[in-house]
Amino acid sequence: MKERREKLIDLELIVYFLLLLIVPLFIVKGFTHEPSTGKHLIYAVGFSIIFLLNVLNKREIRFKYNLVHLFAMGFGVAAVVSLFSVQLDNPHYLRYSLDVALFTLFVSLTGLYLSNKMNTRTKIELSMLFFIIGATVVALDAMLNYYAGYDLFLGKIGEPFARASARSTIGNPNFVSDYMGMALPMVFYFIASSKALHEVFGKKLWNQVALKTSMLIFMIPMISAVFIAETRTVITGIFLGNLLFISVYLLLRKRLEADSSDQTLKKITLFFILLAVIIVLVMSYLYLTPSPLTGGGKLNVTKRLEYALTSSSSWKERFSAWLNSVYQWVEPENKLRLLIGSGIGTFQLYHLLYTPYVISDHPEYSAVWNNFKRTHNDYLQSLSETGLLGFVMVLFFMIFLVWIYFRNLFKIKDRSDLLLYGAIGAGIFSLSLHTMFEFPLHMQPNLMGGVFLLSIAVGVYFNNKQKEANISKGTSIIVILAFFGVLSFLKTTAYIGEGYFRMGQTDQQYYYAYIREYVKADVNTLNKALSDLETFSGDYAYLKNLPEYFSVRGSDLKRKYPGLSSRQLVLKAEEERKKEIESIKSQLKNYLERAQLLKSKAREYYDSAVSNFRKSFSIYPVFGKPLWYLGGFGLKQERLFMEGYSLKDKLTVLVGDDPYANLVLSEFKGNTNIIPLPEKTIRTTPFKEFFERVGTTLTEKTAMRININLLAQIQMTLDAIDYYESSMIFFSERQTPKIVGSLYKQLYENLSSYLLYLPDSVEGLDVDRLRMLAENVRDYAAEMSVYWYDLAVTLLPGTWNRYPDWENIYSQYMEAVVTTHNQLEEVVQMLVDIAKRHASISVAMWNGGKYGIPDDTLDFCIEFSKKILSENVTLYRKFMEEVLMAYREIKEVIADKIERVNSDRLKIRMKKFLQTYETLSSALER
């Protein structure tokens, strides 16, 4: 390929070089939540500037393209078309999907630009150089994270030798290593090529020596970052990719034109290649064996690679997510998904919702569910989110990419060009392989690197056969400004919204820290101590008078003042008594003041956290996490205790005008068969009409008689539930149904208690109406508690091996049923059904290679029968027989597995379960 005679570097390239440095490294301490969100913004703004510079410097916009570019843009169009599904299923989420779709289309345009801009080897090499420099800083930061628990940009982040710490500025160790997978072939190119950057460095030998020496130095932290990240597919991809293109190079080198480089430079190049090989071998040995670099074996790459090959659960975890994507694609509620998908960016919202379908068809996957926000296979995710339309675009993109790449590869005659193209191919291979098992293209630095490599592979430098097109300058400017305006708004609000959320999380951490210290201070004990001191009772009775004091402290005083007469000792004792009283009082008051300070600081961080979560959602109203946290903060003592609340404030809460709850969505406008809300109406204010009517005449005395405090707390709990329900529209969280179920159970108990003590009549109030409203809410709470607990065990029936807090969900469900339902036969049948589900999923857990011991639900059923059914012999016997039948299969499984279990704790539970079952069975046979 011949270099064109044109300006070596222009302003567009300078901006691009800056992007190559800034994008991978950009992160703001205390404000960055998802690392790629801010990077997306920088990339969008940076390329908008590049596009404008390009257009403004030309009279006519001409560019070359091929089928790969068309299919890349076609996928962007498919992403936009997929928005119709989002509008049908969950229109509230449309803004997020619009953000992703437009950015996807924009990225394809940046690829087209790079394919045309990188028309000389020098431009490509300079871009690679800046890419390598950025990657080196990322790698060094990853090493510092891993070995010291310290980050260059974030400070102290964790403990040394923790794999998760190697995330650097990219956001995850897997993607740090993926970034190195793209950068390392570039490093090898600069080491192996005798013509690298010759247009910049000229023919001076020492420049090449300096370049290659730098590359050897850069290579060391990059290789280290790959090993400490322990990313199996990247290690495999780097090895296979580089091996493939070394083999191709050796195969094709005889066809290459004679190398015009002088012999000295050739020898130096061979020397550096040898050094590079030695470094790779030495570092591989050090990282694959116990050494100081592995912490004496704490890092075990070999074991992790073996685990990937031998562990079925490791593969099932991926297969489960892949099937989840497919099930989302074939959703019967929306046939349009087959063609256009569920909507770009929706997997992270839907993945939990489709888990029941996966587990129903593959019960062995009950033990491997993970809280994935991506499919971990971008090819399948493109199918589920953009349907056949998007998948076909990706498929043909890959087919024509491979065809064009190998067509060009076998035509290259220049040695440096072949090395360059091989390096690009090795990077693409590593990225493509990783994309089958992870989601590197969702991380902006990796996406930027992938776009660069792919653009060069099909760009004008290596491809003479290209179609040509032109666009008017005016049209180009309109398109660029439209993209810039929309994407800048979407990306800026996303970044700022996430930033406020991150600040809210920090405030929350401080809040909990101060609350813990406040609880330790034990204010009630301190107040009692102060009261005892003032009345000289309890522990301080000895301070009441001098005789009492002297009886306790007399011996000490005599030793302390040996030379005093009896009268002087009495005077000194009185003096000491008063001092001790004042000292203790001062100390207790100091403790109380400190406790009040802790409480004040907790309140300060509570208010700040709530404020930041509210700002987060207000700025970026498709980010559901702030709503989830507002639900949790709505149940804290700072709100429920209503300190400083006047009667007017409590009425404001009851009529639904409380500012705290004004971000709750009033109604869900999507499909409740997809987002499993019990009904479309979310905002719940059952007492609104009643208190709007009587609020102006309600007195403090009357309010106290109807216990308005409890009613306000009930409404506050409903506000929190509404926030949790609202969050489900934007955010997938396994705990949400469990939390909401428990809150409704609590509401049922509170309202049952409230109704017992509500007066029959209160002057000036329609108490019967209030009673009816409270009964309606109580009955609704009973229904909803069962609904949400049932949803919890439906969405995530097992996987307590990964999430131990989930293991008792079935017994909690049983408790909710018994608490909230009064029809005995209905309760009995529901308990049997829950027992069957718990037993069935426990069998599936064993089949999936983990454990399932439904001992808590068996014990619950037995206790329930003793307390409630003991007088009804027929119902008692029928219930216990059905319980035994429900647990029969799991009993047999546990009996079979018990001798093969290594855990003593599990063995004890298994033995107890079997004994309980046998005891119950024997009792029923009598």
What does this entry look like structurally?
- With 926 residues, the protein is mostly helical.
- 70% of the residues lie in helices and 2% in strands.
- The chain has 36 helices and four strands.
- The protein has helices at residues 11-25, 35-56, 67-81, 83-89, 94-117, 121-148, 173-192, 198-201, 205-229, 232-252, 263-288, 301-310, 312-329, 337-340, 347-350, 355-361, 378-409, 415-435, 444-457, 473-521, 523-535, 546-560, 566-619, 625-633, 637-640, 647-654, 688-694, 700-705, 708-727, 735-757, 767-795, 809-820, 824-847, 855-868, 873-897, 904-925; strands spanning 61-65, 150-151, 155-156, 467-471.
- A two-stranded antiparallel ribbon has the order 1-4. Strands 2-3 form a two-stranded antiparallel sheet.
- A hairpin with a 3-residue loop joins strand 2 and strand 3.
- Helix 6 crosses helix 9 (205-229).
- The radius of gyration is 35 Å and the shape is globular.
- Residues 1-5 have low confidence and may be disordered.
Q: Topology of this structure?
A:
Blueprint: H1 11-25, H2 35-56, E1 61-65, H3 67-81, H4 83-89, H5 94-117, H6 121-148, E2 150-151, E3 155-156, H7 173-192, H8 198-201, H9 205-229, H10 232-252, H11 263-288, H12 301-310, H13 312-329, H14 337-340, H15 347-350, H16 355-361, H17 378-409, H18 415-435, H19 444-457, E4 467-471, H20 473-521, H21 523-535, H22 546-560, H23 566-619, H24 625-633, H25 637-640, H26 647-654, H27 688-694, H28 700-705, H29 708-727, H30 735-757, H31 767-795, H32 809-820, H33 824-847, H34 855-868, H35 873-897, H36 904-925
Helix pairs in contact: 1-2, 1-6, 2-5, 2-20, 3-5, 3-17, 5-19, 5-20, 6-7, 6-9, 7-9, 7-10, 7-18, 7-19, 9-11, 10-18, 13-16, 13-17, 17-18, 18-19, 20-23, 21-23, 22-23, 23-24, 24-29, 26-29, 29-30, 30-31, 30-32, 31-32, 32-33, 33-35, 34-35, 35-36
